[in-house]
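hey can u run this one w/ beta-D-fructofuranose bound, need the structure tokens asap thx
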Amino acid sequence: MCKTVLYLIAIIAIITSCSKSEKTYKIAVSQCSEDIWRNKLNEELKMGTYVHNNVELSFASADGSDEKQIEQIHQFMKDGMDLLIVAPNQIATVSPAIDEVFDKGIPVIVFDRKTNSEKFTAFIGADNFEMGRLMGEYIATKLKGKGRVLEIMGLKGSSPAIERHNGFLNAISSYPDIVLVASLQGDWTEESAMKAIKAYHGDLSNIDFVFGQNDRMAVGASKVLSKLPASHHTKYCGIDGLPGEGNGLASVRDSILEASYIYPTHGDEVLQLAMDILEGKPYKKDNRLMASLVTKDNARVLLLQSEELTRQGHNIDFLHEQSDNYLQQLDTQRVITWMAVGIIVLLLIAIVLLYRYHLNKVTMQRERVINTLWNIPVEELPAEPAEPEQPAEVAESGVVKPEPSEPTVDSRFLARFKEVVEARMSDSEVSVEDLAADMNLSRVQLYRKVKAITDSSPVELLRTARLKRAYQLLATTDKNISEVAYDVGFTAPSYFTKCFKDEFGISPSDLS
Ligand code: FRU
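ok here u go:
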């Protein structure tokens, strides 16, 4: 019984859990800072999980602090992750922590910013040198090869700041009349650009073009520089080209910036790369994302397009939420259904087992009575436990002779009843009154006493005795079924056959 129930529970558990059998990958995302560019990327990563629903993303932002990022990477390692996606704040300081992850055998995707080692699985991001170079070319062309230029650099020691600077220098170095007045140090924030300009003691008058290494710093520069003398004609350009009011695209549309460069986030592609690595599919180690220049000519169109994409994104979010809810409901319903099926099956098993137990009990009781009455000699009937034990008699040989137990009042009564029944059973006319009379009892007295001792009525015992005798006769003599039926007091052989079958589960013809 136990085994059956255990198998059943196991089957139900397997069925209810089979939809969860797919492995869930834990992907940790370590962001160097929190800003609109990184928020966009995080949202795209989350949206990527609509396609890969076997992914669990965990995000951490270091707020521009190397120490914090190192700590967060160590925490990710403690918590356990299948893959790390990381944008290191500064190259030199954060790289060793990333190396540790890689050395542990955990795949690492470096995105947007680089490390100073080869210990990573893949890189994905735009070409920052090329972007700096293209911005240099753009500015030099706009200035027709002549003018005063100011650069505001991103966070010191971060790879895009170094590469954009190198690319920019590479481009303007071909223009001898372009003067790079200064490369001021910012940290990617608007405030840092404002602070850097205010702190500069050199001549910042008559700047023709400012190259902010990102849009936020370019806008910050414009806020301070525009207040200085002879700066009304200064033009500004940056990098990122983000959608949304107040960001790069809108700033170009509104002529706050002359140009920007879309620095792609492409979180969905980053997640796809992660899944290819985790699922053992082919992937490229170096993945370059395409960037593109934004000017007044295309800013409006690009803005409209990205607004449309944002709108569609919201629709997808909504649909995803709906389908998530629906799937959850379905899951719950399935669990409830299987639990109901399980309970019904368990109940059925319990009913069958109880029924079988009951049948067994009844059969055993009958067997006991019949054995007691007709198969076991009266002397072997058990003595009543209350009677005091007699000391065992020791034989001359020294062997202890078992004392035959004294028949009890009940067993003596039953023995007598057996004699009466056996003497009368061939008489088909015999009644309970006759049997009672033979025992000097009234019909009621006989009934009560027999019922109390055997839990069967005198008629039932008479019938059992007849059938047992019939069994003996059929098995040991040549008498046919009718002869035996009459011999044991049945008046109709067909009724005898039915009773015989009920009693022994076989037909009398099986024995004759
Ligand atoms: C966002 C950001 C961008 C910049 C990039 C460089 O955190 O500051 O503005 O283009 O990082 O990594």
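DSSP finds 17 helices and 14 strands in the chain. anyway lmk if its weird
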